[in-house]
Amino acid sequence: MHESPLVSRRRTVPRAHVAGLCWEVVEGKERPGLVVDLSWEGVRLERPFVGGVTPAEVQLELDVPGIDEVIWAKAGACFDEVVAAPVDSISGGPMGLVRRTGFRLLAAASQDLKMLREYLVERRRRARQLDPDLPWEPESRPAGGRTPSMAAMHPAAMRFGAA
After folding, report:
1. Would you write out the chain's pLDDT as a tens digit for each of its 163 residues?
2. Most buried one in 47, 70, 106, 145, CB count within 10 A?
3. Are strands 57-64 and 16-26 parallel, antiparallel or unpaired?
4. pLDDT in tens, 14-55
5. Is 81 helix (H, G, I), strand (E, B) or coil?
6. In Å, what is the CA distance from 7 to each residue of 76, 81, 92, 117?
7. Number of CB atoms found within 10 A of residue 14's CB
8. Is the CB of residue 122 less than 8 Å from the CB of residue 103?
């Protein structure tokens, strides 16, 4: 995938590490995935790797965790990588691999984007009440520079079949 000029902005908005369901609609077929990072500008999606390429643009049906709302959005792929699934996990599907894709939200209903922004700001506000020293967006990362995969922490969340 190409590097977008907006990449430098990606840490200026709050991002939540979540475990939420999402469906990509590609060529009229829904493919389930797990949202592991969420901001009002984009999402990082993980799902079992079953081959093929990730289209440059997809339609996403995003179930916003904790508020029982679904957002439909057009999204563009920013990055796409295939990694080994955690050991002793079924999250990698038949090949034992997980596909991670970052999507930038390109278009959605304005009320959906507003709801998503309010959800993320409120979530961060509540987290700061528990820890006043919490920065707006944590810059620290675990060893290796990556956020741990939600599939590694919650393999049951990836128990859907490959389509």
Report:
1. 344 443 444 456 667 888 889 999 988 889 999 999 998 899 999 999 888 888 999 999 998 888 888 999 999 999 999 999 887 776 777 788 999 999 999 999 999 999 998 888 888 888 878 877 766 554 433 334 444 443 443 333 333 333 3
2. 47
3. antiparallel
4. 678 888 899 999 888 899 999 999 988 999 999 998 888 889
5. strand
6. 13, 17, 28, 19
7. 18
8. no
The two three-digit tokens of residue 5, written as one number? 């000029």
Q: Cα separation of 18 and 119, whole Å?
A: 12
**pTM for this prediction:** 0.72
Q: Alpha-carbon distance 100 to 44, whole Å?
A: 7
The CA distance from 27 to 12, in Å, is 33
Residue 64 near residue 35 (C-beta atoms within 8 A): no
